[in-house]
């Protein structure tokens, strides 16, 4: 058994759990962490990166089980808030599902590289700064107040997250804020919206790549990453909800810009830190 590989899987799981719900691009950080640690083969690493995101999203289901169950049952019982949230999550998920199924593999082949990640980080950072300095009027304080129309717009914005470095959380949270949704509601809606998207993408990728993970040890590595990402994401969710209640996202914008510029510097100069 390769214990060093399992240790790297733990580190990757922690990176995923911490970055999945922050507006700084979990995929971008996982790509960079994978290269930094020389983690697994390219094929297996790509499958691992998608798969362990399901661990982080499982933390959302655990943390918000009561509200999510209310949304699910609201489709059948007719409870207004639950029904609205459920329908909004469904319609907001449709655009990225359609684009992901048709173009997801091409995007992965073309844009899963350092330069694409860096540009996504930098551009997203400047967008966050612009939104924070020009905050729109808030018209939806809670997730249940988000309108059907706003949910559709957020769904189209989420498609941008297929580009590494953009950040699914960053795109949906900042996009929702631009529509007049409160910071807290935008953050929670982003949490919930990740459930069908990430679980669907993870299961589909595992099925399509079932021949890549051939041994029980391969699956053990994935399982370790899943469990670690679940635990670290659960901690992060609770911290982030408390954070957004009092502060803005400017620190993440600066982090994105600085890290993106550093990645470009190393990419174009050939310098290495390791």
UniProtKB/TrEMBL annotation:
EC number(s) reported in the record: 3.6.1.27
Positions of transmembrane segments: 6-33, 45-65, 85-103, 110-131, 151-177, 189-207, 219-241, 253-271
Record's keyword annotation contains Ribosomal protein: no
Key words, A-Z: Antibiotic resistance, Cell inner membrane, Cell membrane, Cell shape, Cell wall biogenesis/degradation, Hydrolase, Membrane, Peptidoglycan synthesis, Transmembrane, Transmembrane helix
Entry-linked Pfam families: BacA (PF02673)
Role description: Catalyzes the dephosphorylation of undecaprenyl diphosphate (UPP). Confers resistance to bacitracin.
Extra information: Bacitracin is thought to be involved in the inhibition of peptidoglycan synthesis by sequestering undecaprenyl diphosphate, thereby reducing the pool of lipid carrier available.
UniProt protein name: Undecaprenyl-diphosphatase
Organism of derivation: Acinetobacter qingfengensis
Top-level taxonomy: Bacteria, Pseudomonadati, Pseudomonadota, Gammaproteobacteria, Moraxellales
């Amino acid at each position: 058994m390769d214990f060093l590989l399992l240790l790297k899987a733990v580190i990757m799981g922690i990176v995923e759990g911490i970055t999945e719900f922050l507006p700084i691009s979990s995929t971008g950080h996982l790509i960079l962490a994978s290269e930094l640690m020389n983690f697994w083969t390219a094929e297996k690493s790509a499958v691992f990166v998608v798969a362990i995101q399901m661990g982080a999203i499982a933390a959302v289901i655990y943390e918000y089980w009561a509200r999510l169950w209310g949304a699910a049952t609201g489709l059948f019982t007719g409870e207004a808030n639950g029904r609205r949230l459920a329908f909004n999550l469904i319609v907001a998920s449709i655009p990225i599902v359609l684009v992901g199924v048709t173009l997801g593999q091409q995007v992965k082949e073309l844009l899963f590289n350092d330069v694409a990640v860096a540009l996504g980080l930098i551009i997203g950072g400047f967008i966050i700064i612009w939104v924070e300095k020009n905050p729109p009027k808030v018209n939806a304080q809670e997730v249940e107040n988000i309108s059907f129309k706003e949910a559709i717009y957020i769904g189209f914005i989420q498609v941008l997250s297929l580009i590494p470095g953009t950040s699914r959380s960053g795109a949906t949270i900042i996009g929702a804020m631009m529509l007049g949704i409160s910071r807290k509601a935008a953050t929670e809606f982003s949490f919930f919206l990740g459930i069908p998207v990430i679980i669907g993408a993870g299961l589909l990728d595992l099925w399509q790549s079932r021949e890549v993970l051939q041994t029980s040890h391969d699956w053990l590595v994935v399982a370790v990453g899943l469990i670690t990402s679940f635990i670290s994401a659960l901690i992060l969710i609770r911290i982030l909800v408390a954070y957004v209640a009092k502060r803005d996202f400017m620190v993440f914008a600066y982090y994105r810009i600085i890290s993106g510029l550093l990645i470009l510097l190393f990419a174009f100069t050939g310098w290495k830190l390791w």
